Amino acid sequence: MTLIAHPRSRGVRTLTLDSPHNRNALSAALVGELADALTEAGKDDGVRAVLLTHSGNTFCAGADLRDPPDPDALVALLRQIVELPKPVVARVTGHVRAGGLGLLAACDIAVASTGAGFAFTEVRIGVAPAVISLPLLPRTDPRALARYYLTGERFDAAEAVRIGLVTAAGDDVDAVLEPVLDGVRRASPQGLAETKRLLTARVLEAFDRDAADLTALSARLFSSPQAREGMTAFLERRDPEWVV
Fold it and tell me: Which SUPFAM superfamilies match (predicted)?
């Protein structure tokens, strides 16, 4: 198993990304297992919220370049997180790259440790943050996204909070999480579901409007010669041929 679903604790189901060999990258297998675990949590009347976290020093390294998920499957997973009638809260204590940032944006609340680091690295391997833009563009500062999408620069947790990618950050991430989880435990299931519906309406509009075009763009880019060069260079730990 690449995903461990822990038993719920006081109404919170914890799903832990646990694929250390590829830094919790979004492989076809991980995407499928996470989708199944979310479906199970959604059907469980005893689950009030889902906590999405990780093992190791990386929350998610983006798409697994050796076993990438189908773009349609990734779109479906992101939409599933957005549409789940229960809050999904991300707990991040490590690095987040590329597609992993799409997971964060799809979550309702994201809490990070001050040591966490973030980067949109797609342009550096010849592709674009296409599918993950579905939850990112409606929720994140557009000027900041322009900078980080186009440059692939790394940024820290404080900047992630400033631009709206992360809700809150602190040295002790669990201390920051405590009032969040206490709050959802005190809320009624109906109140949570209907309030989440209000909050996600604009995000779901983006999925309805743009998902097909962005899925096609992702598939086209990943099959292009520049992407093949970029992914090969990444796996060989060298600069791609276009670096000047």
Answer: ClpP/crotonase (SSF52096)
